[in-house]
Specification:
Helices cover about 75% and strands about 0% of the residues. It has about 220 residues and is mainly alpha-helical. It folds into two domains: about 160 residues, Delta-Endotoxin, domain 1 (Up-down Bundle); about 45 residues, no CATH class. It has a two-stranded antiparallel sheet with strand order 1-2.
Length: about 220
């Protein structure tokens, strides 16, 4: 059964997976464009690291977008069919959901492997000045963890009905609107700031998305 679920999800998401793999492979390769000299001054090294850090912003963005697209594509056929197919299968509901989740996670492994390959090639081709090191495997591991965390969260949201997803987005939009109105009224009350800090800073579940994403660093 899992093989069939994987095959169908591959048919729905193969364009996204292929495009994501290309982008993930290109990111580390493009990020080391300035690393062409082993002998570089202090200011040149700082410029190189700044360039690497600016490219690093794209890694969590790509991870989140890939997780979102795969999660949505995983459940969209079931939503269109009102889950009739899933309910007619002679397996428990949790077994079907686990198969859906596993198939999506397996598809996301392709961009992760592509990023790892790109990072290895970029690290091998770059002329790294003394005092700096390349971390292709660590970068790929962090990217894979970010993809998995985002996918698990978005998979749970996407598995709900369209109405439930609308409620979730409506609540978030309302909170943002209230925050903006309070800021315009010069009221020193913050709602989203403390909540986001608890989510995106340690020990928050999305802390993996923050910080420095560096292929080459000290």
């Amino acid at each position: 059964m899992f093989r069939m679920i994987l095959f169908t999800q591959w048919k729905w998401a193969r364009a996204v997976v292929a495009l994501g793999a290309v982008i993930a492979f290109a990111l580390p390769v493009l990020s080391v464009g300035q690393f062409g000299r082993e002998q570089a001054s202090r200011w040149e090294v700082q410029a190189m690291l700044s360039s690497i850090q600016s490219w690093g912003v794209l890694y969590p963005v790509v991870a989140g977008l890939l997780a979102l697209l795969i999660a949505v594509l995983t459940w969209s056929p079931d939503h269109r069919g009102r889950h009739v197919y899933a309910l007619t299968l002679p397996v428990p509901r949790w077994h079907y959901v686990l198969g859906r989740f596993g198939a999506g996670a397996l598809l996301l492994a392709a961009p992760v492997i592509a990023l790892w390959a790109g990072a290895l090639i970029a690290a091998a081709a770059a002329s790294i000045p003394p005092g700096l090191q390349a971390y292709p495997t660590m970068l790929a591991l962090r990217f894979s963890l970010a993809v998995l965390v985002a996918y698990a969260l978005l998979f749970a949201v996407a598995s709900a009905t369209t109405r439930t997803a609308g409620y979730v987005l409506g609540v978030l939009a309302a909170l943002i609107l209230v925050e903006v109105l309070l800021s315009v009224a010069d009221v020193n009350v913050h709602i989203l700031g403390p909540a986001l800090m608890r989510v995106f800073l340690w020990p928050g579940p999305l802390e993996i998305f923050t910080g420095r994403w560096m292929l080459i660093d000290v």
